[in-house]
Please model this.
Amino acid sequence: MQPQQTLGVVPLHHQIADALRARIESGELAPGDPVPTIRELSEQWNCAPGSVRSALDVLKAEGRITGGRGKAGVVRTPPRRIRLSIDQSQVQKDLVLRPRTERACQGALEITLGMPITSVHSSARYEQILASAELAQEFEVFVGASLLRRTYEMVDRATRHRLAWSVSYIPVHLIASNPDLLDETKEPWPGGHQHQLYTVGIEIDRFIRSVIATEPTPGERQRWGMESGVPLLCVRSRSIDTDGRVVELSDATYPADRTEFTITEQLSRWASDYPKYDEMRERAGEDVEA
Model:
């Protein structure tokens, strides 16, 4: 996205921030390059150090530079991008019917992050809970019905930063026929949750997803390795089976600065005999009406 220049009567610190931002976007200042020092910028702009500090604070809040508290500022290196698209769900569904050896080496993490599972420390915690009024309405079960809540976290072994985090819910009665689905020690499951549901005869027909942005806490920023000013995207996914039931509800969280959503909208085509638009005739009709 092309950054917009500050409009109107612009305070000096925003002028400085605009100039540095333009240098970063053009590539003149590349990721990892040092940002000019406060002394250098003060001399260049003939201003007090306070104005420069305010400009650098603006760029830090935007996630463009890092540093501060005695550390020299540098242009931030973009984090590994998380790519989410509609096609990925179909890829994972197709994977369900593949041999176990193939399912074991290509899961959701490899598809979205392009990372091998060996580069990641993953954890899963299972617990049975009673359905709240909200969850009971989602699954069309009675309040207090037994649900399996599963919390997943994946951490980059190299940086120790969180790569993925989600919580999902499934009515226990849907999966009780396969005790392995209630056992967290069976994680990671080759083929992911679609294969888990496949083992109890459930086929996913579609997903309904909604996205909202939230402000992370300082602790969450630390876990994700996020800069200030970057929100979290909370994605709620409803898995609908071929009988039209919500069989799983998942809440996943992603940092906004490293998450890319690809949405393709296929529109229905007009019939082959649709009336052709005639610009001259349309104008003539407007003249007659006038």
User: Anything to note?
Assistant: The CA atoms of residues 86 and 265 lie 10 Å apart. The first strand starts at residue 65 and ends at 68. The longest helix spans residues 12-26.
